Amino acid sequence: MPSKPRLGQNFLNDAQAIQRIAASLGDLSGRTVVEIGPGAGAITAALVARAARVLAVELDPDLAAHLCAEYSHSNLTVYQQDVLTFDFAAASSHAGQLLLVFGNLPYYITSQILLKLAASYTALDRCVLMVQREVADRITAQPGSRDYGLLSVTVQLYGPATNLFTLPPTAFSPPPDVYSTVFRWRFAPRFAELRVDESSFLPFARKVFAQKRKTLSNNLRAAGFTPALIVSALTHASIDPRARAEQLSIETLAALWHALQTT
């Protein structure tokens, strides 16, 4: 089927990559898999062959109708809707298990989908997602690296993320202008371990990463913390006053959050 560029549609046509992606989710026997944006169904076929049930969430009505017709007597259920409105918790409850997820995420909405998945973590086991290579590098980056930032911290707070492999533009039709990386995200939220509150720690992280070129101290001042409190909290958390947010591990950021709450 022809793609619709406005929806970010680039269909995977590399047979070896399709099987490799399906295998990356692990053993699917007896499992329910949600596929985000199945498109023409290239990976859908591999998932249907391996999983007990596949829930395909497709925004494009033409593609959704095509999938319904193609798999009318199989273990596939098609939801013609925006994944941002999909109820993962209800799907998990109906399946009686945590869900597995695969998605070839459109570049223009990647961050919103990642945040949707993070917000649905109680219903999810693990995801295998395909995104623009540069985005995957930011998601999986470690402290001190060029790519480490707010996206790295946000995703990794909900569980470890690991890059698996990268595909060239020629693996897709039409070929995009970028390389795509497949990564695995296992949901194991760290809020209890770090003793931080999810609703306040994430906004705090956004504040300390607000200006990457500025020091942590400057970003904290811009967020409304007093100079005296900043100095005290940095000392308490054993952080160099000249440090920048991208140098700090999630554990150190949590220590700073605690120090600002209690100092």
How would you describe this structure to a colleague?
Mean pLDDT is 94; it is low at 1-8. The chain has 12 helices and 9 strands. α3 links the parallel β3 and β4. The longest helix is centred in the C-terminal third of the chain and has 13 residues, at 250-262. It has helices at 15-24, 42-50, 61-70, 88-95, 110-119, 133-139, 150-157, 191-194, 198-208, 216-222, 227-236, 250-262, and strands at 11-12, 32-36, 53-57, 76-79, 99-104, 124-132, 161-167, 172-173, 180-186. The chain starts with 10 loop residues before the first strand and ends with a helix. The strands form 2 sheets. A 7-stranded mixed sheet has the order 4-3-2-5-6-9-7, sandwiched between helices. Strands 1-8 form a two-stranded antiparallel ribbon. The chain has 2 domains: 5-189, Vaccinia Virus protein VP39 (Rossmann fold); 193-262, rRNA adenine dimethylase, C-terminal domain (Helicase, Ruva Protein, domain 3, Orthogonal Bundle). The chain is an alpha/beta fold and 263 residues long.
